């Protein structure tokens, strides 16, 4: 939850500093201290990235969501820049966990 929240903050601010300062600083050490494998955490973040980008680009499908799939009405348009920015923030998190 905290990762998704701070990626959202970074998107709203258009700046990764809030993500770096408040979330990524010590994130790997925190998960290690809790005994959470880094590979599992990185995989979970990769899944969050895929879902978020699919929602931004309006390419989410029933196959991706399974029984929880819900198609939201969105404004049509080119959101590729926003999707790329979002993906970059998630990549930053994955890199910090490695």
TrEMBL record:
Q: Per UniProt, which keywords does this protein have?
A: Bile pigment, Chromophore, Hydrolase
Q: Which GO terms describe its biological process?
A: photosynthesis
Q: Which InterPro entries match?
A: Globin-like_sf (IPR009050), Phycobilisome_asu/bsu (IPR012128), Phycobilisome_asu/bsu_sf (IPR038719)
- Gene3D superfamilies per UniProt: Phycocyanins
- Assigned GO CC terms: phycobilisome
Q: Which GO terms describe its molecular function?
A: hydrolase activity
Q: Does the keyword Transcription regulation apply?
A: no
Q: Give any Pfam family that matches.
A: Phycobilisome
PANTHER family, alphabetized: C-PHYCOCYANIN BETA SUBUNIT, PHYCOBILISOME 32.1 KDA LINKER POLYPEPTIDE, PHYCOCYANIN-ASSOCIATED, ROD 2-RELATED
UniProt family annotation: Belongs to the phycobiliprotein family.
Protein name as annotated: Bleomycin hydrolase
- Originating organism: Symploca sp. SIO1C4
């Amino acid at each position: 939850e905290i990762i998704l929240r701070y990626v959202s903050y970074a998107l709203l601010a258009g700046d990764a500093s809030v993500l770096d300062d408040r979330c990524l600083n010590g994130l790997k050490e925190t998960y290690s201290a809790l005994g959470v494998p880094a590979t599992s955490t990185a995989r979970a973040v990769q899944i969050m990235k895929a879902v978020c980008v699919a929602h931004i680009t309006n390419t989410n499908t029933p196959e991706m969501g399974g029984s929880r799939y819900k198609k939201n009405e969105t404004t049509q348009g080119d959101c590729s820049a926003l999707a790329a920015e979002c993906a970059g923030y998630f990549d930053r998190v994955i890199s910090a966990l490695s």
